[in-house]
Write a structure and sequence with these properties.
single chain, Gyrase A, domain 2, elongated, alpha+beta, protein biosynthesis, Ribosome_recyc_fac_dom, 3 helices, Topoisomerase I, Chain A, domain 4, Ribosome-recycling factor, chloroplastic, four-stranded antiparallel β-sheet, 6 strands, two-stranded antiparallel ribbon, RRF_sf
Length: 158
């Protein structure tokens, strides 16, 4: 739930899960225990400024975060976070696809230029690999979409 939250730490945005242990103390409460207690204020500020609408309470060593009842506005905010996470995953899939296709093209170019060292591919191998990459890309894009839709439905149902 908090994984997407970035904390400003010494001028660098750092994922919250790298700065603190996050645990569930009961179904309505999260505990955030920083690895370095001096970062408690930065963690609190990042959680408050997140789109989740959470209001952490600090004690000496940790943050206690009561999870509010799911109002329509809060549900919409969570759905937006889920949609953004889904889009980030799809961008990562597209980047991986492009990187794989670039590597295939480089290997195919080596086949044409016999002076270059390294693995080389025939045209048939290139076509087969491109199709395989496209099929995998479609499969995982659909999986990301399906997971996003399922999670949105769960959130809206409460």
């Amino acid at each position: 739930m908090l994984d997407h939250i970035m904390v400003e730490y010494y001028g660098v945005k750092t994922p919250i899960n790298r700065m603190a242990a996050i645990s569930v103390s009961d179904p309505k409460t999260l505990k955030v225990t920083p690895y370095d207690p001096s970062t408690l204020k930065e963690l609190e500020k990042a959680i408050i400024s997140s789109p989740l609408g959470l209001n952490p309470q600090a004690d000496d060593q940790q943050l206690i975060i009561p999870i509010p009842s799911l109002t329509k506005e809060h549900a919409q905010a969570i759905v937006k976070v889920v949609a953004k996470s889904s889009e980030d995953v799809k961008q990562s899939i597209r980047r991986s696809r492009q990187k794989a296709l670039d590597n295939i093209k480089k290997a195919a170019a080596k086949k044409k230029d016999k002076d270059k060292a390294g693995p080389s591919l025939s045209e048939d191998e290139v076509k087969r690999m491109e199709k395989e990459i496209d099929d995998l890309t479609k499969k995982y894009m659909k999986k990301a979409d399906d997971m996003c839709k399922t999670k949105e439905k769960e959130i809206k149902q409460g």
